[in-house]
Amino acid sequence: MKMTRQLTLLAALAVYAAPELALALDLHGFKPDEIAVWAAAVEGGQPLAAHRADAAVNPASTMKLLTGWAALNRLGPDYRWKTALLSAAPLRGDALSGDLYWLGGGDPRFDNGNLLSLLYNLRLRGVRQLDGKLLLDKRAFSRLASADDFDGDAGKAFVVGPDTHLTNLKVAWLTFFNDGHGARVALDPPLPGVNLQVDVKSGGDEACPDVRRFVAIRNDGRHVSVTGSVPAACDGARAYVNVLEHDEFAGQDFAALWHALGGSGPLTVAQGRAPDNARELAVWQSQPLAVALADINKYSNNTMARTLFLTLGKEAGGGDTAAAAERALREQLAQRRIDDANLLELENGSGLSRRERVSVRLLGEVLLDAARGPYAGEFLASLPIASEDGTLKKRFADLGPRLRMKTGTLRDVKALAGYWQAADGRRLAIVAIVNSPRAAEMGKALDAVVGDLVQAFDPAAARSGANR
């Protein structure tokens, strides 16, 4: 009890170092140097709380807020990515007598449905046979930003890197069947570079909330083995696997879907730049940036966030895509008069980084600017809703949907950043970031700190959350 009072006193002293602040934080068991907190009303006034507000901390995935805010302001919420098929070769009958170029635009949401639409448009043009090579034109990104020190997570979907030809997030689906013809598993799409070995039997009558409870999946990127049992309730269930490298995946996926549409070819897949005289044969325009941003923030998708960061660089120009992305982001901060001195490292804009460092005050000022700006609706709509969806679906049930926050989790990092909206419309921007070897075990304490800030700003918060 004595130690708790001491820690609370230390936090209070840290807050009262700025005389305009009135809230003494209860750190709920955190040591003062383990957590950084900042909160302020969107409608104006002095910060409600600021504890280690200018310390450089690893933000984990709350860094996605900075990238998304910059992208909305620079590109606009209706920005769309373009993917095209081009060729300078003549069409003889239904055969394209030469190479086909796939110009990748770095669309973070480009999936097999989009690829099928692109290929269907090529078939509508009358093309059935590809007599030449499929050449991947990767000019959109001259350099990819790194995500170092994640070798131990190789093969996991969350570390898939960005790419101009990112397709289906570079994952294939295992579809499980048990329909009276025996238990079996199919790879979708059927990639020839992936060897699938299946040893499954029919299971019992159990419910199937997740097929992975009943099967073991081993995957090294080229060989996937599935063993176990498939209950009848798992018929049609799916699980994804991260396989192949980007160019291999894109080329084999293209060929599989092209053949499914009755096409033949191409002869092989390689990289190549389309000649100036190449004509567009088929085009796919993505859904708007605002749609991608919702996927990025609600489900904390690192691959998509890194791709969005590079899109900033592509549109800014200047040769080095990753360097141009950082420059564009810092320019946005300068235009909004937000000091970037505490943005000490910007590796890839997604928070999948051991090196990225930012202050909670800087992130908080970005939240204020976003809430006051022309794209406030799109920005707010991208955030997980407490107790309802995304990464907050099972958190903050006591506060409910008036709380929207981006989460962040890495080894030794836990973070929350977002907004509380009171019943009278007032809004509180909140950033709370833990950097500590104890971070993984302190999730409830972090939630409690955020809850205290909400209650201090809006004493009716708990009742509002319960009543929705």
TrEMBL record:
<keyword id="KW-0121">Carboxypeptidase</keyword>
<comment type="similarity">
    <text>Belongs to the peptidase S13 family.</text>
</comment>
<dbReference type="GO" id="GO:0004185">
    <property type="term" value="F:serine-type carboxypeptidase activity"/>
</dbReference>
<dbReference type="Pfam" id="PF02113">
    <property type="entry name" value="Peptidase_S13"/>
</dbReference>
<keyword id="KW-0645">Protease</keyword>
<feature type="signal peptide">
    <location>
        <begin position="1"/>
        <end position="24"/>
    </location>
</feature>
<dbReference type="InterPro" id="IPR012338">
    <property type="entry name" value="Beta-lactam/transpept-like"/>
</dbReference>
<keyword id="KW-0732">Signal</keyword>
<dbReference type="GO" id="GO:0000270">
    <property type="term" value="P:peptidoglycan metabolic process"/>
</dbReference>
<keyword id="KW-0378">Hydrolase</keyword>
<protein>
    <submittedName>
        <fullName>D-alanyl-D-alanine carboxypeptidase/D-alanyl-D-alanine-endopeptidase</fullName>
    </submittedName>
</protein>
<dbReference type="InterPro" id="IPR000667">
    <property type="entry name" value="Peptidase_S13"/>
</dbReference>
<dbReference type="GO" id="GO:0006508">
    <property type="term" value="P:proteolysis"/>
</dbReference>
